[in-house]
Design a protein that fits this description.
single chain; seven-stranded mixed beta sheet; 22 helices; 50% helix
Length: 520
């Protein structure tokens, strides 16, 4: 590894993911849900942006001016090239955290986001991050931080250390990091099959190792094979962040806001008697065996009165981002738990939102009450019922917080320019599977095939057959074929039939959603 990387994996670029928790538009909902006032986010900073997909989308589809830094110059170059396409209010740097700290021209942020950084850098760099927050975050500003958490990693952490040691000591000179990771996985598998007593204590290790084998090696390199890898207890994070005058206010994972999904009655009663928030959150992590937290912290949080909280939440716009057919109420995964949602509450909400138009929660509340009355359903609908439903539905990614119409109109030109860059990249790559929505101020998952269809549509092709023919011509030029149930389709007829089926499905199901979200 090169010296500038300070032990962080730099041979492989990071993945091209998008992270909705970094979206400033999500912050208002999460904080209000927990009874806190949000700042007006005019300037935002992302530390360690990876390939820069999230920061580019948020700058293009939102209203804030963004600055981002990632010390990997290849990643900074990629992100900078994307930024040039959208002309959004975005500055891309390749400064180290230490270099950024000393810059007097980079300051006065209302929001600082760091996803996938805290647990994977050195103690020294964590100290620098805290100093950046101290010096550059405005009073009232928000920090988003995600990090590996104890006790969830207690069982796997020793095996991770063993794999990292194997890469360092046994990794063959001249071999790529991918080869070294594969060798370390083989070594660990052989070790576990030797039945050490360690495995008797943590019998789930073999299953977890098998899961690792199926994952992207670029992801594994950055997740597990950096020099530094440090899961922490929430109490330790809270103590460190208090040095920057930060207070924990809410999880960015809205599913975690609904305790009755994750805690038994006895567990809820037990932690409800704990007056200290830090101890309570730490205990909750033990109860659910938390592995990864996504948290919002505020420098000087201001609590809302109960009335102001309800007023703020009723004024929140939300929009449905998935087809109605995919929005189930049975066996819904909320975090690690599988639950069935009350159909008397959730079905009419999902039906109402299935036109994919943004609505205020106040309107949803009123429509749900009217539905119950007209249907003769017993009982009443409370604002608590509605807010819990909104929390769960945003948490499971059926709904998203939406911007008001003025911000949507303001962001549309730069979001569309950003999408043009993504659609161009889709001609040759499957890397970026998101497009920017000015309605949500963030990214929406759009697979490569759908991006190719959108590209044809924007070029004036009007029918599914034309979109399918364009995609087939592209695949032929690149020597590619479609897969069906893991088997490559060899003949032209088979490929064209499959493409036409996908194009017709796109036209009927997903295209109306993408139009409603003003992606196109």
């Amino acid at each position: 590894m090169s010296e500038w990387s300070a032990g962080y994996v730099s041979e492989l670029g990071y993945t091209y993911g998008y992270y909705e928790e970094l979206n400033p538009n999500r912050i208002d909902f999460c904080l209000a849900n927990k009874g806190y006032k949000s700042p007006k986010i005019k300037r935002a900073l992302e530390l360690g942006f990876g390939q820069g997909v999230s920061i580019n989308i948020h700058a293009a589809a939102g209203s804030a001016t963004w600055v981002g830094t990632d010390f990997n110059p290849a990643q900074a170059n990629f992100a900078s090239n994307l930024a040039a396409e959208s002309s959004a209010a975005l500055s891309i740097l390749d400064d180290s955290f230490e270099q950024l700290l000393t810059r007097e021209d980079i300051t006065d942020f209302d929001y600082i986001g760091l996803h996938g950084i805290w647990s994977w850098v050195s103690d020294y760099n964590r100290e620098i991050i805290v100093e950046i927050i101290k010096q550059k975050l405005n009073v009232g500003g928000v920090v988003y931080a995600s990090y590996n958490t104890m006790p969830g990693w207690a069982g796997f952490a020793p095996l991770r250390q063993l794999m990292a040691n194997h890469v360092e000591v046994m990794g063959s000179s001249g071999h790529s990091i991918i080869n070294k990771i594969d060798d370390a996985l083989d070594f660990s598998d052989a070790f576990l099959k030797a039945t050490p007593k360690y495995v008797n204590t943590y019998p789930q290790l073999q299953k977890r190792l098998e899961q690792l084998r199926t994952q992207n090696r670029h992801y594994l390199a950055h997740e597990f094979f950096n020099k530094d890898w440090q899961p922490m207890f929430f109490a330790d994070i809270s103590k460190i962040f208090s040095e920057a005058k930060l207070s924990f206010v809410a999880s960015a994972d809205l599913g975690q806001h609904v305790d009755q999904i994750h805690l038994s009655a006895d567990q809820k009663e037990f932690i409800s008697g704990i007056p200290d928030l830090t101890l309570k959150e730490t205990l909750r992590d033990f109860i659910v065996n938390q592995q990864f937290r996504k948290d919002y912290w505020v420098k000087g949080p201001v609590e809302l009165s109960p009335k102001d909280r309800l007023d703020r939440l009723r004024d929140q716009d939300v929009v449905m981002i998935v087809p109605r057919s995919e929005a189930k109420t049975e066996k819904v995964k909320v975090g690690a738990e599988e639950v069935t949602l009350n159909p008397e509450v959730y079905v009419p909400i999902l039906d109402l939102m299935s036109d994919h138009k943004p609505r205020k929660i106040a309107e949803i509340e009123q429509k749900l009450r009217s539905h119950r009355e007209s249907s003769g359903v017993a009982g009443t609908t409370t604002i608590g019922d509605v807010l819990q439903a909104m929390t769960v539905l945003v948490g499971v990614n059926y709904l998203r917080a939406a911007q008001d119409s003025a911000l949507t109109s303001h962001s549309k030109p730069s979001a569309h320019k950003m999408n043009e860059a993504f659609l161009k990249a889709a001609q040759s790559s499957n890397d970026i599977q998101y497009l920017a929505s000015p309605v949500t101020g963030g990214g929406i998952r759009v697979n490569r095939m759908d991006q190719l269809f959108i590209k044809s549509l924007l070029l004036g092709k009007a029918t599914p057959k034309e979109w399918a023919d364009d995609a087939w011509a592209l695949f032929v030029s690149q020597g590619q074929r479609l897969m069906n149930k893991g088997v490559a389709l060899e003949t032209e007829e088979e490929n064209k039939t499959e493409l036409l089926m996908k194009a017709e499905e796109f036209s009927e199901i997903r295209l109306p959603i993408f139009k409603a979200l003003e992606i196109i």
